[in-house]
Amino acid sequence: MIPLEFADKLFRSALLSLAGNRAAEAFALKYGLRLGAHKFVAGETLTEALEKIQRLNDKGIAATLDHLGEGVTRISEADSFREEYSRLLIGIRESKADCNVSLKPTQMGLAIDPGRAYDNIKQIVKEARSMRNFVRIDMEDSAYTDDTINIVRRLHAEGYLNVGTVIQAYLFRTEKDIRRLSLEKVNLRLVKGAYKEPKTLAFARMEDVNANFREIIAARLRSGIYTGVATHDEAIIDWVKSFVKEQTTPYSSFEFQMLYGIRTQLQETLAKEGYRVRCYVPYGRMWYPYFVRRLAERPANVLFILKNMIKH
């Protein structure tokens, strides 16, 4: 019999390999939203996404809005994403949504022209600051970890404090990054990690990832610097609740973060219990890579899609 942990790795690896499969992407983009991708993606337009955010806000749940797109190949594409984020920020302000924004550095051109990418990101952060909003620079795979952290540190050094990033618990380097960014008082979202990484860079066993996740959460909560704990793992959530009670950590110093369409009832329950909760709301036409990562995280997500395919 194949060990459960090994089978889970094979499952995740097989699904993640589909992220670059053009035939699978073409099929998904043609039928995906109708067959169930709408569960994880708030729509293809900003209007659709803002409507979903209003429903979340009505339930006491804040949001972070992400216009999906990564790995652009032309700088003109990156400029288009920057322009969309300008419209996105205006849309948040006009709708009076309780919402900040998330973006990926590669969609701003990091893999093509790092200097231009920095300028694009800085413009968005500057516009957000003028609207009293916050920008989360998402973390992608390990090839971009250093560049992403350096962008945030540079922006902070230039006085843009309304920007933070994401730290992934499955990387060996994480503890060092946490220490440095905490000293610089950078707002962080802590996650387990969802990319396929080599054994030389990341923990292979989930129990090691979970142990490191708890350690970095504890370090951040003790620091008093605002932190987003991003997880759907109820064991981790219960551990955080016990930890903050024991440490008398104020609820105002952290928030739970979860993804749109996943553990919706749990999000509502936590909000009713008085915890700050923020939902990551993605939208846009380039949703396929994001969608594949959500499927790879849990077999139940795949079953949901298969059921919808059978229905149709």
From TrEMBL:
Oxidoreductase recorded as keyword: yes
Chain positions recorded as FAD binding sites: 139, 168, 192-194, 231-232
Catalyzed reactions: L-proline + a quinone = (S)-1-pyrroline-5-carboxylate + a quinol + H(+)
Annotated EC: 1.5.5.2
Cofactor(s) annotated in UniProt: FAD
Entry-linked Gene3D superfamilies: 3.20.20.220
One Gene Ontology biological process: L-proline catabolic process to L-glutamate
Cofactor note: Binds 1 FAD per subunit.
Ligand binding (substrate): 104, 293-294
InterPro entries the UniProt entry points to: FAD-linked_oxidoreductase-like, PRODH_bac_arc, Proline_DH_dom, Proline_oxidase
Keywords carried by this UniProt record: FAD, Flavoprotein, Nucleotide-binding, Oxidoreductase, Proline metabolism
Domain of life assignment: Bacteria
Top-rank EC class of the record's enzyme: oxidoreductase
Protein name: proline dehydrogenase
